[in-house]
Design a protein that fits this description.
With 412 residues, the chain is of the alpha/beta class. It has 11 helices and 6 strands. A 6-stranded mixed β-sheet has the order 2-1-3-4-6-5, sandwiched between helices.
């Protein structure tokens, strides 16, 4: 049987590629510049070769095939997730219109497309945040489509980019995580995503929950490093499972909240907590002291728990500091989604017969306990009680207002 091989760009901790591996692909070469992520890959998958030089903006795209031991046209799958910050919806909400393609970090899209032309893979897959093409702001998607048209003209290929939106929870991942995938086959074949397997739709299994994923890691005593810190840490015990700071806004005062903040005046993940019986909220890559999701016992999640919620293999270890490890895990694609996409690529684009059930999603448990009890708001926060104003709307947050005021000052 011909080997199903993968060239991985922006590999990070390997979340997407671990899924491809489980789906029957061989990871031939990884391009990753972050040193801690490289150590993670070396520790867990020493057989995966790491490209040199490590920086995709420095390495010659044509040399990647030589390092992988492949020739042009023999690569099965080129996959990667370029850094997503230029297309983040959260940044747009708080700061107004972002630089997007004018952001230097969006150069990674160009780098990805250069490797497409240098390798001519049978299938290409690019992952990014949902905001890559939201609300008509689709410059990134349009760039990809335009450049692939150029490749098709030059190389007589038939890549036809498809845009696929996935919420990981719909396929058994114990986490609400929405991402966009762009898939194209060299012969013009298209991929149709299977119907969701989990959720509230008729015929679906229940969503896999946080309890399903990390219940066996729950302890009465936890390390000091998991104790939350900062100005708002003592407020966490007063917030019910599955809620965030919005619990303590005027709109929820009648059902037990205390009006300490304005409605939507803070970012969504501010003081956000898991609910045992539901999927986790989206894992963050760069959390601040008050950024969730927090454990239902009002503590930080351990790296092991974060890996479980991202459906990494159970024995996978993350190298580096706690901050680095959180960044690596938070930036990853859930491995079970890589497994799902890998199987569907094999089935639909490579014409193979493959299994349908995913191996990386957690087993459903039937012992989920009741929600944790909440405490009263600490006395030190009560002076904040007020009829706080609501957020003004998308692109009108404090960052956006500061930017407008700064621009007015410059023009004067």
């Amino acid at each position: 049987m011909t080997e199903r091989n993968v060239l991985s760009l922006f590999t990070g901790a390997g979340g997407l590629d671990l899924g491809f591996e489980t789906a029957g692909f061989a990871i031939r070469l990884c391009v990753e510049v972050d040193e801690d992520a490289r150590k993670t890959l070396k520790l867990n998958r020493p057989s995966w070769m790491l490209a040199e030089p490590a920086d995709i903006h420095v390495v010659d795209p044509s040399s990647l095939l030589r390092q992988a031991g492949l020739r042009k046209g023999t690569l099965t799958l080129l996959a990667g997730g370029p850094p997503c910050q230029p297309f983040s919806k959260s940044g747009y909400w708080s700061n107004g219109d972002s630089r997007r393609l004018r952001d230097p970090r969006s150069n990674t899209l160009h780098a990805f497309l250069q490797v497409v032309e240098a390798t001519l893979p049978h299938v290409l897959l690019l992952e990014n945040v949902e905001g890559l093409g939201f609300d008509g702001k689709d410059e990134g998607l349009q760039l990809i489509k335009d450049q692939i048209k150029v490749v098709n003209r030059r190389r007589r290929t038939r890549y036809k980019p498809q845009v696929i939106y996935i919420n990981a929870a719909d396929y058994g991942v114990p986490q609400i995580r929405k991402r966009v995938f762009i898939v194209a086959s060299v012969d013009g074949r298209t991929l149709e995503m299977p119907d969701p397997t989990h959720g509230e739709r008729h015929g679906c299994e229940p969503y896999r929950s946080s309890w399903d994923a990390i219940a066996d890691l729950d302890t009465v005593v936890w390390p000091q490093e998991l104790k939350p810190s900062g100005k708002w840490s003592a407020l966490l015990p007063s917030i019910p499972e599955g809620q965030n700071y919005l619990w303590h806004t005027p709109r929820n005062e009648a059902i037990g909240g205390t009006p300490l903040f304005g409605w939507r005046a803070r970012y969504w993940s501010f003081l956000l907590k898991l609910a045992k019986n539901k999927p986790s909220w989206t894992i963050q890559a760069e959390p601040g002291p008050a950024t969730g999701p927090f454990h239902w016992k009002s503590r930080l999640l351990s790296i092991k728990e974060l890996c479980r919620l991202q459906t990494f293999p159970n024995d996978y270890m993350i190298e580096g500091s706690i901050r680095s490890a959180r960044r690596q895990v938070g930036n990853a694609v859930p491995s079970a989604i890589g497994e799902l996409l890998g199987l569907e690529i094999r089935r639909q684009l490579l014409g193979e017969k493959v299994r349908r059930r995913l191996r990386l999603i957690p087993t459903r448990r039937d012992d989920c306990p009741s929600p944790e009890s909440v405490t009263r708001v600490s006395l030190k926060y009560l002076p904040l009680r007020s009829s706080h104003k609501d957020h003004l709307g998308p692109g009108l947050g404090p960052g956006a207002r500061r930017a407008i005021q700064s621009q007015v000052s410059i023009e004067r």
